[in-house]
Amino acid sequence: MKQIMNKEEGFTGLEAAIVLIAFVVVAAVFSYVVLGAGFFTTQKSQEVVYTSVEMASSSLEVIGDVYGLNTTDPNNVDTIRATFGLSAGGSPVDFSTVQLVFATTESVVILNNTTPMTGGTLAAGNWTIINGATEGGDLLLEGQDKFTVLAMPKDALTENQEFNLEVRPSIGAAFGLKRTVPAKINAVNILY
Q: What pTM was computed for the model?
């Protein structure tokens, strides 16, 4: 009977089973935590990618030509006219928060936004929407909408002068129009 009592093989197997179960439980909890952290990180990185694509891509595009008009002086271009729409898949742009920046080699000027015009004249240093938005109405460019914008810089443009008109929406990348006034100025000029 003493020989049977001195053998502890049964206890060793039971201890090993308890240790094995403890390792399995710890490994399961650890893998759950690691998988949860991985899913959280993947979700956050996906949000960052979508936000950065939204901020880096421009939703605007020019529809048709950009025109230079001379409304006051027949020798200079004093008003720029362009029609904007959304690019394919572009998100809506709220033109009540859009900023227009006019730049030449001599100056950079932020043009003031005035209410949409149905008639009248535009003062120098301002821009407005003449088609597409109603006075006091919807200034959200969405879907198939088109807004025709008139911009009148403070200084008139002369022959062969280059300029940049940058449209800066509140969300998304700025859209730049780099154009040159033609060598011969007419009442209405296509700017290239």
A: 0.68
CB-based contacts of 139, cutoff 8 Å, min separation 6: 94, 95, 96, 116, 129, 133
Coil, helix or strand at residue 22: helix
Question: Distance between CA 60 and CA 55 in Å, rounded?
Answer: 13
Cα-flanking dihedrals φ and ψ of residue 9, to 5°? Answer: -65, -35
Residue 82: which H helix or E strand, with range?
A: strand 79-86
**Widest Cα–Cα separation across the chain:** 124
Instruction: Give the integer Cα–Cα distance in Å for 44 and 100.
Output: 34
Helix H or strand E encompassing 88: none
Cα–Cα distance, 156 to 147 (Å, whole number): 23
pLDDT in tens, 22-81: 999 999 999 999 999 998 898 888 888 877 766 666 678 999 999 999 888 788 999 999
Q: Are 79 and 181 in contact (CB under 8 A)?
A: no
Q: Name the phi and psi angles at 149, rounded to 5.
A: -110, 135
- What is the β-pairing status of strands 188-191 and 108-113? unpaired
Bridge partners (DSSP) of residue 149 are: 82, 129
Question: What is the distance, to the nearest Å, from the Cα of residue 185 to the centroid of all Cα atoms in its chain?
Answer: 35
